[in-house]
Design goal:
two-stranded antiparallel sheet, 9 strands, TIM Barrel, 7-stranded parallel sheet
Amino acid sequence: MKFYDLNIHPENLKEAGEIIKTAEKLGWHGICLVEYFNDLNNFKKFSEGVLNLKKDTALEIFTGAKIKAKNIKDIRKNARKSLDYADIIFACGDFNINREFQIPEIDVLSYPERGIQRDFNDQKNSGIDHIISKLLAGHKAAYEINFSGILDSYGIVRAQIMGRIIQNIKLSRKYNFLTIFASGAGDMYGMRAPLDFIAVAKALGMTGTEAKNSVTRNPEKILVKSIDRKNPEVIMEGLEVVDWGEQKPEGNKMFGWY
């Protein structure tokens, strides 16, 4: 059984080196170093820096691109641009953007509770509803519980965030979409051991199995999706080419299939 923290957001690559050492000591088997995707050249430099960090550790290290935009068109455009340099693609936006979550390249809906100002009259506004839930399940994407969002909030704001997370956990159980628990740490001080996350996940209403899967089985599924997306032999889930013969298509693979 391997433990994965799929959202660590280092301030710089030097800090990333300290984060890797801390992750090894805490018992993680793999981490994803994430950067906002604002410019292709800057993200390419970040990706190359992460590749260099891989040389000095046995830890599995992945690169994540976080896409934040005001409209779905820009999210789609930046997600496709980042595919060549990112292993995992994260999306974060407001509730209306989340409702347009119809981009196959997106792997994780990150911290949808953030930025929600008011609840609905009849229920909490948790950043996810039944429409978003079905889209997440259909695209085999994951909802991310971000530990830094809990850790860095206080008083009534923390209570609201935790209440919204509890509601999203219930939605994930009802609609069967993946939930991952990630640190969202910006430095080594924001990191915690896998068993700590499992304990917090249980306190938020997950069963023991669900809590364990949020840092083991579910992140692995996201990583497998990423690997298959880059594998030219995989047409779509469950369909893989054994031998193309003379019919192998040219160009980039889109949407996980040709």
